[in-house]
Amino acid sequence: RMLGLCSLLLLWGLAAPSHGLLETVGTLARIDKDELGKAIQNSLVGGPILQNVLGTVTSVNQGLLGSGGLLGGGGLLSYGGIFGVVEGLSGLKIEELTLPKVSLRLLPGFGVQLCLHTKVGLHGSGPLGGLLQLGVEVNVSSRVALGVSPRGTPILILKRCSTLLGHISLLSGLLPAPLFGVVEQTLFKVLPGMLCPVVDSVLGVVNELLGAALGLVPLGALGSVEFSLATLPLISNQYIELDINPIVKSVAGDVIDFPKPHVPVKVPPKDDHTSQVTVPLYLFNTVFGLLQANGALNTDLTPELVPNNVPLSTTDLAALGKLPPGQHLLLFLRVKEVPIVTLQHKKAAVSIPASIRVLFAVPGGSPEFLFELNGVLTLKAQLAPSATKLHISLSLERLSLKLASSVTNTFDVSRLEKWLSDVLQATYVQKLNVDLAVGIPLPKILNVNFANSVLQIIENAVVLTVAS
């Protein structure tokens, strides 16, 4: 059997998570305990922790406990070492290390109990000749405080560590009982100081993963979003909850502060063995606000910029009166107000208020003004998650128009809605989708991949849920 390397992570000052209300405009992340255990296990499998702390378990043995280490040739247990009383016992070093198996338990309002199950195999030459093999079981207990780093990320800090060795067994070779007692006593003195760095290194990996979630994420040509911790993490018996504050910055680095909704979001409960990220309405408003502020929502539609199959000539306006036929139209669309994004009843929509000036080209002369419309484009938003982003794709659902001015008599603008809808869907909406390809960034919580998550649109937020 294997005895655990059990460490108790005391997350001081934590309370149980709130009852499903997100009071801020932040991104709420609920990370299942399975993801935390998986992150630690993966760090041990693919990372350098064991090699750096316990020595490379190969024939080279150049690590901490390798041939040049404390228990190798010239080390504490070798001939001529501090414990040279064990005459004839030499070259004792780690040759085998069972990959730790991670298990953990979340303690609501308290912390995490973490266990790394492993066993160390020591090989050397016995005093009576021949190969000597020892198996050592260990139990490392540590206390870790939770702090916040200077850049606003959660960080686990090792405060105290103690190591208790379990059973030491002689697997092969001969070692007289008196010498076995000396070896056992020596290992009890030497190994504890070498095994505590395992916990410290594991915490280092976890801190890197937690820190990666909170940082600067580019928004293409629009600017960036900087995620920071809004409050101390909360903990339940199944997940750790992070309330993350998104700070939006322009390309120049200036903080952009768009209006924030005052109604708290009612976050649905999380199922066991799933992780969850809630993306607030505020981030959607911010993306479209940046597009409007940068002028990216404005467009000039000229014959050179539209597909050949898009109807854009005075012939298409024949119903409005006598116009010179076959002349190219020029459309100038301007958005002077921030679009309104709505998330409710399983539907996402965007309303863009715009003014549209329509002119026609005069051969050899300056374009002539025909009329100006005030309109509202109501667009349906399709949302799709990827590993690190929430992507938005728009389609025109409805176009409402009012006549602002005209060089001719007043006319029924409803007669233009079908024509102008076709033009805008084929040109303007496609341009918007290209600009929106940057997506809304998701915080990288312990490398959780949300590409296959279940997407749920709730009041003023979008919830992504993925199985652990």
Automatic annotation (TrEMBL):
- Record bears the keyword Secreted: yes
Instruction: Domain (Lipid-binding serum glycoprotein N-terminal): give its ranges.
Output: 30-272
Q: Where is the signal peptide?
A: 1-20
Query: Of which family is this protein a member?
Result: Belongs to the BPI/LBP/Plunc superfamily. BPI/LBP family.
Q: Which organism is this protein's natural source?
A: Ictidomys tridecemlineatus
Localisation per UniProt entry:
Secreted
Gene3D superfamilies for the chain: Bactericidal permeability-increasing protein, domain 1, Bactericidal permeability-increasing protein, domain 2
GO terms assigned for molecular function: lipid binding
Keywords recorded for this protein, A-Z: Disulfide bond, Glycoprotein, Secreted, Signal
Q: What does this protein do?
A: May have the capacity to recognize and bind specific classes of odorants. May act as a carrier molecule, transporting odorants across the mucus layer to access receptor sites. May serve as a primary defense mechanism by recognizing and removing potentially harmful odorants or pathogenic microorganisms from the mucosa or clearing excess odorant from mucus to enable new odorant stimuli to be received.
Per the record, its GO cellular-component terms are: cytoplasm; extracellular region
Name of the protein described by the UniProt record: BPI fold-containing family B member 3
Query: Where is this chain primarily localised?
Result: secreted
- Tell me the ranges covered by the Lipid-binding serum glycoprotein C-terminal domain, including all copies: 271-466
